[in-house]
Amino acid sequence: MRQATTCYLYGLPSAATALCRTVLQFALEEAFATRGGISLHLSKIDRKDYLKKIINFARSSKVLSPRLTTTAHEIREAGNNSIHTSACNESEALTTIKKTGEVLEHIYGRTGQRGR
Questions:
Q1: What distance in Å separates the CA atoms of residue 12 and residue 88, rounded to the nearest whole number?
Q2: Distance between CA atoms of 18 and 27, rounded to whole angstroms?
Q3: CB contact at 8 A, 20 and 78
Q4: Alpha-carbon distance 22 to 79, whole Å?
Q5: Element containing residue 103 per DSSP (H, E)
Q6: How far apart are CA 44 and CA 46, in angstroms?
Q7: Total domains present in the chain
Q8: 1-18 residue pLDDT tens
Q9: pTM of the prediction?
Q10: Residue 116 belongs to a domain
């Protein structure tokens, strides 16, 4: 998230948004691993719509609430748009950073737990 914020501050909203998407994916993969849930071996999962699939799995396994699932999909879509079309302005990037922070706070909690 630090790098995403730095990109935003230096006027790189598309890069910031793409990094938020990556952070979301990493956090969900880590959440599944630390909860003793499924092992997400990349070779076993079809890569098409991979993040969409793990967000939906996060909802069905109660890692994310329905509201945060919607938020996670918004982050995914903003990241996809910034990667594929470079269409992201500063306002959209800031909103995506805030949404990503909200999801991360839920996953890692406020107790000082930290991901890698």
A1: 9
A2: 14
A3: yes
A4: 8
A5: helix 90-108
A6: 7
A7: 1
A8: 999 999 999 999 999 999
A9: 0.84
A10: no
